[in-house]
Amino acid sequence: MNIAFIPVRGGSKSIPLKNIKIINGQPLVYWTIKAAVACQHIDKIYVSTDSQLIKDTVLSFAFPNVEVISRSPETASDTASTESAMLEFANRYDFENIVLIQATSPLLTAEDLDGGFILYQNSEIDSVLSVVRQKRFIWKETDNTAVAENYNPLNRPRRQEYGGYLVENGAFYITSRKALLETGCRISGNIRTYEMSEDTYFEIDEPSDWIIIEEFLRRRESNASQLSDKLSSIKMFLTDCDGCLTDGGMYYSESGDELKKFNTKDGMGISNLIKHGIIVGIITGEISEIVHRRAAKLHINEVFLGCKDKLSVANELCDKYNLSLDEVAYVGDDINDLELIKSVGFGCAVKNASSVVKDAAAYVTSLNGGEGAVREVTDLIISMRRNVN
Question: What pLDDT, on a 0 to 100 scale, did the predictor assign at position 345?
């Protein structure tokens, strides 16, 4: 069983009772609980608190699968670590995996949590933590001189060419109960990072953080409403193959046969779309029998190989099924996908798509192509259909 653990103390020095202070119309802790409830990989949510007022507030939300539990004074003091509360909980409750969620990161989404758990499901991964990418140049002062730590001042890179570095944003940490009890740490062993959007760099510690994050929340809610409108009308799902359904790599057997690496979770996502009555198709510039075989296995009837003009193919499919392009979703990753991404109702780019494609997309996945990116989009579409129905 996967559980979420959200520790919320009543005593906050910088912002009194900040965990239930209203932000964008709701108590702060509401936003992370909402994300956890909507996460497909979380079975139950535990909110740990030492405050009766916080307990009453959380219970008033009436979210399903949420239990408020007591937190001892020892683990709720100003000097107590979050790990102490986690260990107290782990010694009292039985579960398999735990995701620590911090209420001070209200920009966290269910999609972020699902993406983290998808990474965690890899048998070689022991822990996953959320991060954001920063593109700042770091300096350190030593012995009356300053030294650049992450770039060469004599060869200063342009921002768009600079890979940057990853920073913990404190939103979530996933590990097993076994590892937590053995190490006493929220993450251990073989660790992977899940990269969240740049705006989630901020977490609420000071009053100034509150102003910034509340504005981000307002914008996100507005964007979510627009996204909801787009997703609710989708009746056809199209995708590129290489770089979207696969990782884009070129693989060959010892005998020289070409191989492709597909992700089973993407396959399940496509199967789910078909079950919900959504037309599915593959439009790719590649000419490969492997793609045909994969499509046949997934019962995808609309397969177009060697396409030079993907928009024309999409228009033909719309004519065939009496649809408009506004009712089509498409996932792509490169320049030859750009025109179609701009034209459909819900144009998507995978995380590692070219920059110009991501800039044009209505949605950019949190995962790379071939690593569950297509599943992320299919889950979004299905989730919206459930909400509408």
Answer: 92
